[in-house]
């Protein structure tokens, strides 16, 4: 085949998604740490499913339009670090295919190169031996094998094989992968995606193996639309058609600046279209379901939480929005965006409370004109410490600084179980063993929950430790937790201990040391 049409591109995207979905559990199992949060496959699958839904929702079969939908859908559906990086790869593809009406070998090469560049720019400190390495090696292969006369499926398969080779080498680049005996999960997910896309073009693509080794938008009814917006902007592009895919345009005036009144239930995408293509002068959004006008306040707080006990603590601390999520289920960029839109505040603080949600939270900054501050909390107890330092009388900048200082002063231990056999440092861990982590690093293992917790605390407590709070999970009996606290208090009589019900799944205890 000499070129791909928009229809073929859409087919490749859907096939890629289906192939990853079929193999997502094998990607999840590649998690380096044997804790039950190996959700890379799930996050990447949900991200690309969002892209597929977006692609299938548009009327156009133009290559450029489908590529833009791929980018928009993956951005709004991005979950976890792997999903955010995947969304950046899709964004790179969209850049390369802008204004294109067909895809030749040249556009494919440009797509791989632009994806690599966009993904690397999105990560502050790129680490080799990850999905970034795999995409970089495929970009290099796209240049190495570039030949205008080569059939597209064969060209893609050459790139795919280079990606598989790069994936196999990731344990040699990251010692932690080698020690765990796995390849990079994100890189494996990327390979499954490309494999699915190629198989859409040629189900019998493996026939090349020996040779290569040798050498419909649906417009919603008005009563279903949740928001009205009054927008004033400047743009050299007529955006009415693009906006009308997500909104009913009730009034349009371009006598001076462009003034639009519209109804929509996708204000996030309307804003995104304008951010990309226009200079926004005014954007007033009204929730049609909101019964009364609420005065804008100075501060709003959004947190991610998992566990009814944790949720109660956050509510008691006065947070505005709680997003359900965490281990095994990371909320998307859109989930976080919708939460901040529910808050009528000038400055909004987001506490992700999980390392895999931080990048998704940061992406929201580009989708709103509100002042967004992301406090990079990696654990829920860090979120509590940050909120306890919050001062309504201080400025946003002062609160940002004090909240970061608060989380820096907290040490976090967690007690969970291993989902597979592994070896970490000098610890030989069997599937089902209880494991203890200190700030995310495995430090102890055994068969007994209480003993592993004690071993973990022993390595964590130092001369500055004065308060330890144990948050017990949904699988721990309250009496057992109280008995444990009594034991610990006797052992460490110079430290204050507190017990709080967290209700978190998967983790028997989350512990903060201050």
Write the layout of secondary structure elements.
Layout: H1 6-28, H2 40-57, H3 63-77, H4 80-96, H5 105-122, H6 131-144, H7 152-168, H8 170-173, H9 175-180, H10 185-201, H11 209-214, E1 227-234, H12 240-244, E2 247-253, E3 258-264, H13 267-277, E4 279-287, E5 297-305, H14 308-316, E6 321-324, H15 333-341, E7 345-351, H16 358-363, E8 371-374, H17 380-388, H18 396-408, E9 411-417, E10 422-424, E11 427-429, E12 434-438, E13 441-446, H19 449-460, E14 467-472, H20 478-491, E15 496-501, E16 509-513
Parallel strand pairs: 5-6, 5-7, 7-8, 14-15
Antiparallel strand pairs: 1-3, 1-4, 2-3, 9-12, 9-16, 10-11, 12-13, 14-16
Description:
The chain has 514 residues and is of the alpha/beta class. The chain has helices at residues 6-28, 40-57, 63-77, 80-96, 105-122, 131-144, 152-168, 170-173, 175-180, 185-201, 209-214, 240-244, 267-277, 308-316, 333-341, 358-363, 380-388, 396-408, 449-460, 478-491; strands at 227-234, 247-253, 258-264, 279-287, 297-305, 321-324, 345-351, 371-374, 411-417, 422-424, 427-429, 434-438, 441-446, 467-472, 496-501, 509-513. Strand 10 (422-424) and strand 11 form a beta hairpin. The chain is flat, with a radius of gyration of 25 Å. The N and C termini lie far apart (63 Å).
């Amino acid at each position: 085949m000499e070129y791909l049409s928009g229809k073929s591109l859409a087919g490749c995207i859907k096939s890629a998604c289906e192939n990853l979905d079929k193999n997502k559990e094998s990607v999840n199992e590649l998690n380096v740490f044997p804790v039950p949060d190996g959700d890379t496959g799930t996050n990447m699958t949900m991200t690309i499913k969002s892209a597929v839904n977006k692609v299938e929702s548009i009327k156009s079969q133009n290559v450029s339009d489908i590529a833009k939908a791929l980018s928009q859908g993956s951005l709004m559906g991005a979950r976890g670090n792997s999903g955010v990086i995947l969304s950046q790869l899709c964004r790179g593809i969209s850049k390369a295919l802008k204004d294109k009406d067909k895809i030749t070998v040249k556009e494919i090469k440009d797509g791989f190169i632009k994806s690599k560049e966009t993904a690397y720019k999105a990560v502050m400190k790129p680490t080799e031996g990850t999905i970034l390495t795999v995409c970089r090696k495929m970009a290099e292969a796209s240049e190495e094998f570039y030949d205008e006369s080569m059939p597209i499926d064969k060209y893609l398969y050459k790139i795919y094989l280079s990606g598989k080779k790069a994936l196999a080498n990731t344990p040699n680049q990251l010692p932690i992968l080698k020690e765990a005996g796995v390849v990079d999960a994100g890189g494996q997910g990327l390979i499954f995606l490309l494999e699915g896309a190629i198989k859409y073009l040629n189900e019998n693509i493996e026939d090349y193996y020996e040779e290569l080794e040798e050498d419909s938008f649906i417009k919603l009814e008005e009563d279903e639309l949740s928001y009205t917006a009054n927008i004033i902007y400047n743009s050299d592009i007529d955006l009415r058609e693009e906006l009308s895919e997500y909104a009913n345009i009730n009034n349009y005036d371009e006598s001076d600046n462009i003034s639009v009144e519209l109804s929509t239930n996708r204000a996030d995408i309307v804003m995104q279209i304008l951010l990309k293509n226009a200079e926004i002068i005014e954007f007033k959004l009204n929730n049609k379901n909101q019964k009364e006008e609420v005065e804008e306040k100075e501060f709003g707080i959004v947190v991610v939480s998992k566990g009814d006990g944790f949720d109660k603590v956050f509510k008691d601390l006065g947070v505005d929005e709680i997003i359900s999520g965490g281990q095994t289920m990371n909320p998307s960029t859109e989930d976080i965006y919708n939460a901040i839109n529910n808050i009528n505040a000038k400055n909004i603080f987001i506490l992700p409370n999980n390392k895999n949600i931080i990048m998704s939270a940061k992406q929201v900054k580009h989708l709103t004109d509100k002042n967004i501050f992301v406090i990079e909390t990696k654990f829920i107890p860090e979120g509590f410490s940050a909120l306890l330092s919050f001062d309504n009388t201080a400025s946003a900048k002062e609160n940002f600084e004090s909240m970061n200082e608060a989380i820096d002063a907290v040490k976090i231990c967690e007690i969970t179980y291993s989902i597979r056999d592994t070896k970490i440092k000098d610890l030989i861990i069997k599937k089902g063993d209880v494991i203890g982590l200190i700030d995310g690093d495995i430090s102890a293992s055994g068969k007994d929950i209480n003993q592993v917790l004690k071993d973990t605390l022993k390595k964590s407590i130092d001369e500055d430790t004065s308060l330890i709070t144990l948050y017990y999970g949904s699988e721990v009996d309250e009496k057992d937790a109280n008995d444990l606290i009594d034991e610990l208090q006797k052992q460490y009589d110079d430290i204050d201990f507190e017990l709080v019900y967290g209700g978190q799944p998967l983790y028997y205890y989350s512990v903060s040391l201050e």
